[in-house]
């Protein structure tokens, strides 16, 4: 059959085939999928770290559990779900300045590939890596032995310095994905040089939530 434009249009059995293809086409699935097995996952889901690419992957619970064995040397590592706080955490005089972090907030984690601790702090462009002086961080760990419980690559130590100064600093151990979530939230709210009122409110809300989830670990205690 020829249409008014002179182009041929399908008819008969050909038209029936096209209709059947359209009817059998799978519907688009809304929401996220596991990046390993492709099953649908909820908005709240687990993560693993791809050690080769240093990438977070969204996964279903069964895939997560495959890589949750402590100490396993695998290509992928499950991000733990524990939250700890350290009520006895302290920063001696000059400790924060020696770390050369330009703002009052940063997270630290051990990078196995680089065999060193790395530091990131939030800003208008997202997470910025700081050239962390090794001796300065070693001094912080010497003063706070409980921090050594953090698992390399998948857990981070989040340190916040209040306006009153380093003497009132607080520290939490949390999953690495939570740190990147915080950086993303602050980036969306960031205004001006210091983030502005909205970013500070977002930060206060985040610390309130992790404080409720955290188990307090006194100096010398075990998780």
Automatic annotation (TrEMBL):
It comes from the Bacteria. It comes from Rhodococcus parequi. This is DUF5947 family protein. InterPro entries: DUF5947 (IPR045991).
């Amino acid at each position: 059959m020829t249409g008014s434009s002179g182009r041929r249009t399908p008819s008969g059995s050909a038209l029936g085939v096209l209709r059947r293809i359209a009817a059998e086409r799978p519907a688009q699935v809304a929401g996220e999928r596991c990046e390993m097995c492709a099953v649908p996952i909820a908005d709240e889901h687990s993560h693993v770290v791809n050690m080769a690419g240093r990438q977070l992957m969204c996964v279903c619970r069964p895939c997560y559990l495959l890589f949750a064995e402590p100490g396993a040397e695998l290509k992928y590592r499950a991000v733990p779900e524990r939250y700890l706080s350290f009520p006895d955490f302290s920063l001696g005089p000059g400790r924060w300045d020696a770390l050369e972090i330009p703002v009052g907030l940063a997270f630290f984690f051990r990078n196995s590939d680089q065999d060193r601790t790395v530091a990131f702090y939030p800003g208008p462009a997202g997470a910025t890596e700081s050239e962390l002086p090794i001796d300065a961080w070693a001094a912080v760990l010497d003063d706070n032995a409980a921090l050594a419980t953090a698992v390399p690559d998948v857990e981070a130590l989040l340190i916040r310095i209040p306006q009153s100064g380093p003497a009132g600093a607080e520290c939490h151990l949390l999953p690495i994905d939570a740190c990147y979530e915080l950086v993303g939230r602050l980036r969306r709210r960031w205004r001006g040089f210091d983030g502005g009122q909205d970013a500070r409110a977002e930060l206060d809300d985040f610390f309130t939530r992790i404080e409720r989830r955290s188990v307090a670990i006194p100096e010398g205690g075990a998780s």
